[in-house]
């Protein structure tokens, strides 16, 4: 009973913490947007004036030339299409056989005629326009002094606009920052008290982890009925390292992952994690959909990319919990949603760029090659700004070059995004080249933990993989 | 944010000369915006009724009265279908209790009006509140499971509701003359306008939902529960949201139905029977569960086609089952060949037409040989 009560209180604490964080972030976004929109309005107003002057600096001849260019463009376009048709026909004939060379020649001749015709028509048209131009110029006589003056005005206006923007930006931005700071100091105080309450609740339950440990698994047991999938497994993952979990088929690696991410509730054992605020938490206190908020994201063994939506939207799904707007605001499409959507979309596009997937951003995930789906999953895991990424067999189904690429990518992610990586893998070359430390398990029991070299030399690991040598 | 970011935007827009040619594009873009599409749709619907009432005044039949009443009830069913589209197409849940929720809406509003004599708007809100409460209760119990089991539970619920209403022997029979909404007395024409407005609002809200993170979360949940959970989407929350929304839509439709037909008897009417739920399901499947326009088209085929256009065909009026046969075959064909429904068909058509235009262009500019 006391336990249930405690978990209830913990849940309330977490909800308050999240609400406070959301409110301060929302305030920040809105204030920044206000500055941006007011400045954008300024820019727009200036732009209108600038263009007016820019047009005034053009001579009558230039203005007429722009009009003429537009009128003549369609002839160029049709000539282009004809040329293209010849090219495709030529390619077709070359592919089929040389017998058709006559056909090709006639085609070429006909096309040449056509192009000539177009050119003739164009020439007539140009002439007509030139006549109109003369007429136009006769009525519109340039006043050089006016043009010079508007050029000067233009330069001055541009300078003024730049200066104005600078000045406005400084004042408005400073005001907004001050407001944000005031708001944040209020929420911070509340946040601190909420965190303290949470600390009080968690105290005495377990020893907090040291600073450099991210995840600690202690005596983890997971039984499915009579099947002991994981038994008394313990390991620690240090901050900033790439930790590998290896073992033969059915050793219980994925089960360990599912226990960490709370897809399975472990039978017994302790799972401690240093969350984003560097506070030690017990993962078993959280529901499966709250794990991502603590800073753990994962990929899946058989890729779970949503196939009905585009690649970009797949990344946006990962950020669902990071929108501060409520469902009501979604239903009415209030401006806050648009602002947030833009911010999050930018982040997603940056990630896609990093992964080299920009060309696929509007493609539906359905039918994309396996290697790309794997990359999308990794990008999606990075969307939530995680502290720990759990990769479940990232190299399964990839060829050798792709695997080598993946090894580079994993190291790069660790360095650039400042996170810890925990991975399960069958591909030994990848594991040995990438991992800093490895834990080998067999039938749910730990065999050995250590650096790749130690694991390779370990006798029990060799036995588990290759069988016992009986003499 | 830096000030250079804004400075770089100076003189970055298009020139006024370029802007001139863009006016057509901007109109096209405005037409692509769902809200403007819905408004145009609403204007057409209202114009039809206006034409019909104009005909009444001039004593000529421009549009038949039976046509208009069939259109009205089709629009009411469309509200239910749109809610169901959110449930089936986006959350992947199939409920067969739709008819029950329509009944709740109709009966609650009626009860409120008859017993307590409250303003009409209060009656509508009361019906909505009751449907939300029942939706949340049923949802908490039944949404832990998926697929056929959910359908069975909701089916049972709908039957319970129907028998409960029969046991009360509630015959809804309201007098429209007493109803005052927003200070004006309403008759059948005004109820029709109200239906159109409510439908448009529901369409707008649904399309907003679909294009927001909420809609994406629902789709994620439908496709892969594990991926959704791993990225912080609570299955229960979003399932409950979709379910409650669809019950709300159904209840609103029930209220509108009561106002439009004015008399419904729970024991005689087919409205609260399983057939309604199945028809709505059929309409959503024919139209395409993921498209609002598709769902409207599906509902039109299910409910509007025969009373609106085929009422003069003698063969069909003598054999009314034939139209059911037709829709049945249509469902089979759609499920076999176009799982995305009519919406998918239209989309494929669009792609083909654009390809055809491209080909024709190529032919035109290089047609010799």
Using brief descriptors, characterize the structure shown.
heterodimer, A: 471 residues, alpha/beta, 3 domains, 6-stranded mixed beta sheet, 4-stranded antiparallel beta sheet, flat, B: 369 residues, ABC transporter involved in vitamin B12 uptake, BtuC, 4 strands, globular
Give a verbal description of the structure.
The complex is a heterodimer of chains A (471) and B (369). In chain A, 62% of the residues lie in helices and 14% in strands. Chain A starts with a helix and ends in a 5-residue tail after the last helix. The mean pLDDT of chain A is 84. Chain A is of the alpha/beta class and 471 residues long. Chain A has helices spanning 2-57, 60-96, 101-139, 144-202, 253-260, 291-294, 311-318, 327-332, 335-355, 370-383, 400-417, 428-434, 452-457, 459-466, and strands spanning 213-224, 227-238, 242-246, 268-274, 280-282, 296-298, 388-392, 420-424, 437-442, 445-450. By secondary structure, chain B is mainly alpha-helical. In chain B, β2 and β3 (184-185) form a beta hairpin. In chain B, strands 1-4 form a two-stranded antiparallel sheet. In chain B, strands 2-3 form a two-stranded antiparallel sheet. Chain B has one domain (38-305): ABC transporter involved in vitamin B12 uptake, BtuC, CATH 1.10.3470. Helices cover 76% and strands 3% of the residues of chain B. The chains are: A alpha/beta (471), B mainly alpha (369). Chains A and B meet through α1, α2, α3, α4 and α6 of A and α1, α2, α9, α10 and α11 of B.
């Amino acid at each position: 009973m006391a336990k249930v009560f405690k978990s209830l209180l913990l849940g309330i604490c977490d909800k308050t913490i999240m609400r406070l964080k959301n409110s301060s972030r929302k305030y920040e976004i809105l204030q920044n947007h206000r500055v941006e929109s007011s400045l954008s309005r300024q820019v727009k107003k200036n732009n209108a004036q600038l263009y007016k002057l820019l047009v005034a600096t053009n001579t009558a001849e230039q203005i007429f030339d722009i009009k003429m260019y537009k009128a003549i463009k369609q002839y160029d376009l049709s000539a282009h299409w004809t040329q293209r048709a010849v090219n495709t026909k030529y390619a077709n004939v070359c592919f089929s056989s040389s017998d058709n060379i006559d056909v090709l020649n006639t085609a070429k001749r006909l096309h040449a005629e056509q192009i000539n015709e177009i050119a003739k028509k164009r020439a007539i048209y140009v002439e007509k326009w030139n006549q109109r131009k003369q007429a136009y110029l006769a009525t519109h006589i340039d006043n050089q002094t006016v043009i010079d003056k508007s050029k000067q005005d233009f330069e001055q206006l541009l300078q003024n606009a730049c200066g104005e923007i600078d000045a406005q930006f400084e004042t408005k931005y400073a005001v907004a920052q001050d407001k944000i700071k005031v708001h944040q100091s209020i929420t911070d105080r509340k946040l601190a008290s909420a965190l303290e309450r949470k600390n009080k609740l968690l105290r005495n339950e377990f020893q907090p982890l040291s600073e450099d440990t991210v995840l600690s698994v202690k005596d983890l047991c997971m039984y499915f009925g009579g099947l002991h999938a994981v038994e008394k497994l313990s390991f620690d993952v240090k901050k900033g390292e790439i930790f590998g979990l290896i073992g033969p088929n059915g050793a219980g690696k994925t089960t360990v992952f599912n226990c960490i991410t709370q897809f399975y509730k472990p039978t017994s054992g302790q799972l401690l994690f240093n969350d984003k605020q560097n506070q030690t938490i017990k993962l078993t206190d959280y529901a499966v959909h709250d794990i991502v908020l603590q800073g753990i994201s994962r990929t899946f063994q058989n890729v779970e990319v949503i196939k009905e939506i585009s690649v970009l939207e797949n990344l946006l799904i990962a950020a669902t919990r990071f929108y501060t707007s409520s469902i009501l605001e979604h239903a009415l499409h209030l401006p806050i949603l648009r602002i947030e959507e833009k911010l999050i979309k930018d982040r997603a596009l940056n990630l896609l760029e990093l992964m080299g997937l920009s060309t696929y951003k509007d493609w539906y995930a359905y039918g994309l090659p396996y290697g790309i789906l794997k990359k999308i999953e990794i990008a999606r895991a990075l969307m939530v700004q995680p502290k720990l990424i759990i990769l479940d067999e990232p190299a399964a189904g990839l060829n050798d070059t792709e695997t080598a690429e993946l090894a580079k990518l994993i190291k790069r992610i660790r360095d650039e995004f400042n996170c810890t990586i925990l991975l399960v893998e069958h591909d030994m070359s990848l594991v040995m080249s990438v991992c800093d430390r490895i834990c080998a398990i067999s039938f749910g029991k730990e065999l050995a933990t250590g650096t790749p070299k130690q694991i390779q030399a370990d006798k029990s690991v060799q036995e588990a993989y290759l069988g016992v040598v009986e003499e | 944010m830096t000030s250079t970011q804004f400075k770089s935007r100076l003189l970055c827009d298009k020139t006024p000369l370029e802007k001139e040619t863009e006016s057509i594009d901007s109109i096209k873009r405005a037409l692509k915006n769902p809200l403007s599409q819905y408004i145009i749709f609403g204007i057409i619907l209202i114009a039809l009724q206006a034409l019909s009432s104009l005909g009444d005044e001039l004593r000529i039949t421009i549009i038949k009265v039976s046509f208009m009443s069939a259109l009205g009830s089709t629009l009411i069913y469309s509200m239910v279908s749109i809610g169901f589209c959110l449930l089936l197409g986006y959350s992947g849940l199939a409920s067969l209790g739709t008819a029950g929720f329509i009944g709740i809406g109709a009966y609650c509003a009626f009860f409120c009006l008859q017993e307590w004599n409250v303003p009409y708007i209060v009656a509508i809100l009361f019906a909505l509140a009751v449907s939300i409460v029942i939706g949340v209760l049923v949802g908490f119990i039944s949404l832990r499971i998926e697929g056929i089991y959910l359908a069975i539970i909701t089916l049972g619920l709908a039957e319970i509701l129907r028998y409960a209403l029969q046991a009360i022997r509630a015959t809804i029979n309201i007098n429209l003359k007493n109803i005052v909404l927003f200070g004006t007395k309403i008759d059948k024409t005004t109820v029709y306008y109200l239906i159109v407005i409510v439908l448009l609002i529901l369409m707008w809200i649904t399309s907003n939902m679909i294009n927001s993170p909420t809609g994406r979360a629902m789709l994620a949940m439908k496709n892969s529960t594990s991926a959704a959970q791993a990225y912080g989407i609570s299955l229960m929350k979003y399932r409950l949201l979709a379910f409650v929304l669809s019950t709300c839509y159904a209840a609103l439709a029930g209220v509108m139905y009561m106002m439009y037909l004015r008399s419904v008897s729970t024991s005689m009417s087919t409205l609260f029977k399983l057939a309604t739920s199945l028809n709505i399901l059929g309409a959503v499947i024919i139209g395409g569960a993921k498209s609002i326009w598709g769902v409207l088209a599906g509902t039109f085929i299910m409910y509007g086609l025969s009373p609106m256009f085929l009422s003069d065909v003698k063969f069909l009026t003598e054999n009314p089952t034939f139209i059911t046969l037709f829709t049945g075959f249509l469902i089979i064909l759609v499920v076999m060949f176009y799982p995305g429904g009519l919406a998918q068909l239209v989309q494929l058509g669009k792609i083909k037409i654009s390809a055809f235009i491209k080909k024709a262009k190529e032919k035109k500019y290089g047609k010799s040989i």
